[in-house]
Amino acid sequence: LFDESTDTYGGVANTPARRALALKVAEKSLVLLKNENHFLPLKANQYKSIALIGPNASVARMCGGGSGSNPGHYGISPLDGIKNFLNESGTKVSYQRGIPFAKSALKIVPASLLLPPDGKPGKEGVWAEYFNNRELSGAPVLTRPEKNIDFDWGYGAARSNGGPGSPDPNVVNIDKWSARWTGQLRSPGKGLYDIGCLADNGVRLYLDGKLVIDAWTDQAPGQFKIATVPMEADKKYDLRVEFYENVGSCSCKLGLEEHKSGKELEDAVELASQSDLTVLCMGLNSDMEGEAKDRDELSLPVAQIELIQRVVAVNPKVVVVLNGATPITMNEWLDKVPAVIDALYPGQEGGNALASVLFGKVNPSGKLPLTFPKRFEDSPVYGTYPGSRDLANYTEGIFVGYRHFDKQKIQPLFPFGFGLSYTTFEYSNLTEDKKAMTRDETLHLTCTVRNTGAMEGEEVVQLYLSDLKSSEEREVKSLKGFKRVHLKPGESVLVDFEVKQQDLSFYSEKQKGWIAEPGTFEALIGSSSGDIRQQIRFDLR
């Protein structure tokens, strides 16, 4: 890693060699999820006009949010990449976002739009109640009128970042407290309005008793949680905002702005109708997922779903490209589109890599590193997520990811390890060098993989092991190895795996340690956890 070092931090990283490596890694990581009737790869001269549409079309989505993020030295968007690839082809490449930019901030609601509840003092503002617990329970320890909800209490005066830490540290705890503000919100006028809260930690917002914002969980104050609501002229709405602070910094703000909808959707649909092909760049970004940012649902945002449906209605020649690091459900649109690529977060060369895969310069070979469920109810954490504050019951135990789907015999949308290719691969002749192994021996497995298609490509061959009889509950099968092979059409290769005692071991809750029990095991070789091609049994003595 430090061959190029000129200092302790690794020296120059933005070199031609590193850029070429970033492109190669991105090309190998893109996952082809659907390719109906061999819609892909595209031919460079096949389409005279291509439309790039979506919130991720002109932006390089390189990484998720939080301390694990690692943006590149530059970013190639899908729009950039396709334009680069088709530079001299004569194909017209056009762009529309299709979705208005989501607001991340709102203007603070002024005191002039707020009234205290009946019987409480003050001509403007809200009535505040503070509790020395996170449950808003018991009698409040502090009550008072306040002009509006626009607070940043900080960490506490004794901490490095300062601030009081609560409305009144002499009365209200610095950590683990809660607040409730009640009153009336005057309508600014007839129309649609964006209302929301920015909080660190949990917050709930009610209008006329209806729950409008529900973010009752520990969270970082990255952006406003926003809902769009209709309002009537000259009307007063009952307002209630609830907040709790866990530990660390704390803040809570209430914002309101008129909702402005533009012509983004109509312009995008019009462009799609006039284009030979549409590449819909959808999915997630660092504001939607990442450290301290759980997603509200597994489907795409409603605006993206509507955009896909509207575009497909006027032009069925569509490729959907997704960004994201978490599963996305697709029930509303998957059967309406011929091709889907999951680009994950491909780094700085993602746009160039996407173009290479779309137009067949590179055969896709990425495999899903997670399972996509058909619906959230199929997830191993359905019923236990998000838990209750400090308490989350991990009732799934060892049955996470594909282990859960195997155990419950649930068919996922796309299984762990899944990824299509522009060619086909045949698996055959799985053999073992011994029928039984002892604890200090190594079992050797070999399998022949052949490219039976017409295009050069790579396959990721996966080894799973299954313990056919165990004294304790185990997974149906478990990934124990994988190998990437590159094959020309008609070429075959012998793929080998080693199995050792540690591959057969599991953690015994009874014996409080790792054990490998004698018995019969099954080796399964496949293209994904849901596509096992070859299997063979052996014994551990």
Short summary of the structure?
With 541 residues, the chain is mainly beta.
Structural class, please?
Answer: mainly beta
Strand content: 25-35%
What is the helical fraction, as a range of percent? Answer: 10-25%
- Mean pLDDT, nearest integer? 93
Number of strands: 27
The outline comes out as globular
Rounded to the nearest angstrom, the distance between the terminal CA atoms is 42 Å
Cα-atom Rg, whole angstroms? 28 Å
Q: Which spans have pLDDT < 50 for at least 5 consecutive residues?
A: none
For the report, how would you describe the main beta sheet?
A: 7 strands, antiparallel
What are the defining features of this structure?
mainly beta; globular; 541 residues; six-stranded mixed beta sheet; single chain; seven-stranded antiparallel beta sheet
Structure description:
With 541 residues, the protein is mainly β. It has helices at 16-29, 78-85, 264-274, 302-314, 350-358, 402-408, 501-504; strands spanning 31-35, 49-53, 92-96, 114-115, 126-131, 142-146, 150-154, 177-186, 191-200, 202-207, 210-215, 225-231, 236-245, 250-258, 277-283, 318-323, 339-342, 425-432, 436-437, 443-451, 457-467, 478-487, 492-499, 506-508, 513-515, 519-528, 531-540. The strands form six sheets. Strands 4, 5, 6, 8, 10, 11 and 13 form a seven-stranded antiparallel β-sheet that branches. Strand 15, helix 4 and strand 16 form a beta-alpha-beta unit. Helix 1 (16-29) crosses helix 5 (350-358) and helix 3 (264-274) runs parallel beside helix 4. The two termini are 42 Å apart.
